[in-house]
Amino acid sequence: MILQRPLGNPEEKKGPTGEACLVNLHPPGPDIGRRIPLVNSQYIVGRDSEAGFVVSRSSVSRQHARLFVDDDGDWWVEDLNSTNGTFVNENRITRSQQLSDSDQVRFGDAIYKFLAGSNIESAYHEAIHNMAIQDGMTGIHNKRFFMEFLEREIAVASRHGHPLTLVMFDVDHFKKVNDTHGHLAGDAVLKDLAGRIRPRIRREDLFARYGGEEFACVLPSTALPGGIVFAEHLRTLIEERPCVFDGQAIPFTISLGVTTLHRESGVDPVALIKRADDNLYAAKRSGRNRVIPSLADLIPG
Questions:
Q1: Which pLDDT value is given to residue 211?
Q2: Is 213 a catalytic residue?
Q3: Cα–Cα distance, 29 to 128 (Å, whole number)
Q4: In sequence order, what DSSP letters do the residues of 60-124 get, joined into one string?
Q5: What are phi and psi of 121, to 5 degrees?
Q6: Catalytic, out of 126, 213, 239, 240
Q7: Structural domains in the chain plus CATH codes
Q8: 3-7, 57-61, 71-75: lowest mean pLDDT where?
Q9: Residue 168, Cβ density class (10 Å: 0-12 exposed, 13-18 middle, ≥19 buried)
Q10: Residues 19, 134: contact at Cβ < 8 Å?
Q11: pLDDT over 60 (residue 198)
Q12: CA separation for the pair 210, 141 (Å, rounded)
């Protein structure tokens, strides 16, 4: 799987105003069709988590290639003595090569399409990608993207020995909200919930609608104590004020289950979700509007 994270120093000189981008073509998965804007003047492309443009594929070297823009606003790519090579239109490059609009660039087995800033196809790719990974009602990520992201992060956590926390939660007495105020009011509650929580999500985390009134947050490199604090913050964030719909105040709360993966092998997304869901249902049985963690997941020290 692939993880593109165009980072880089925010104080670095910015690229030209007409924003060029790369569009992910291969491998298949949640990132296919994703548009990655090239906003800085250069990026180191590699598997290393500190690279400016992270491609989390075994075929990609830790520091694989460099993308950079020249004084005329043209983008170039050069290979950094990578193991599996850098290719432009399936020709392996041995020196810096200027990129033209619609060129295909391959790092190992990860393939991208380069689009110049003037190419309107860029917006099309962005729209199609968002439709595939976003929940239409709330605008956050959908279940399909969540499952693929979680699978990828479990693999990363297992490989590096890092913790990974999953928080599952849903709206308490949601059926009663629908029955009392109508389904449009229920939709408004879900949109309000997503709108409050979305700004509190870190760049490396994922917030998704799992289905119906149930939601999920994936917190990479977060141990259970941090996950509990995060979940309690969400609980109070929702409890503190009602949703207002059509002039009516609709109070609502959430119940949350928390579990953490740490130095475990053989755990798949379904098993981890079940652990968090079991805690969510325990929170429901305990009176709702509370956080229930897996205390067995606490790591000493």
A1: 96
A2: yes
A3: 14
A4: S-TT-EEEEE-TTS-EEEEE-S-SS-EEETTEE-SS-EE--TT-EEEETTEEEEEE-TT-THHHH
A5: -65, -25
A6: 213
A7: 21-132 (2.60.200.20), 135-297 (3.30.70.270)
A8: 3-7
A9: buried
A10: no
A11: yes
A12: 9
pLDDT attached to residue 18: 55
Beta-carbon neighbour count of residue 143 at 10 Å?
14
Cα 120 from chain centroid (whole Å): 25
Closest CA to 29 of 202, 152, 134: 152
Distinct helix (H) and strand (E) counts, the chain: 6, 18
CA distance 5 to 255: 32
Using CA atoms in the order 152, 147, 36, 85, what is the torsion angle rounded to 10 degrees?
A: 30
Distance set, CA 236 to CA 177, 193, 229, 240 (Å):
19, 12, 11, 6
* The pLDDT value given to residue 10: 32
Question: What is the distance between the alpha carbons of residues 234 and 249, in angstroms, rounded to a whole number?
Answer: 20
Q: Nearest Cα to 194, choosing from 153, 142, 140?
A: 140
Task: Output the 3-class SS for 247-300.
Answer: CEEECCCEEEEEEEECCCCCCCHHHHHHHHHHHHHHHHHCCCCCEEECHHHCCC
Q: What is the pTM of this model?
A: 0.69
pLDDT at 126: 65
Specify whether the CB–CB gap between 114 and 129 falls below 8 A: no
Whether the CB-CB separation of 53 and 36 falls below 8 Å is answered with: yes
Altogether, the residues listed in the chain come to a count of 301
Q: What's the alpha-carbon Rg for the chain, to the nearest Å?
A: 22
Residue 296 burial (CB < 10 Å; 0-12/13-18/19+)?
exposed
Picking from 97, 15, 3, the residue whose alpha carbon sits closest to that of residue 51 is 3
Q: With beta carbons less than 8 A apart as the criterion, state whether 126 and 111 touch.
A: no
Average pLDDT, the chain: 89
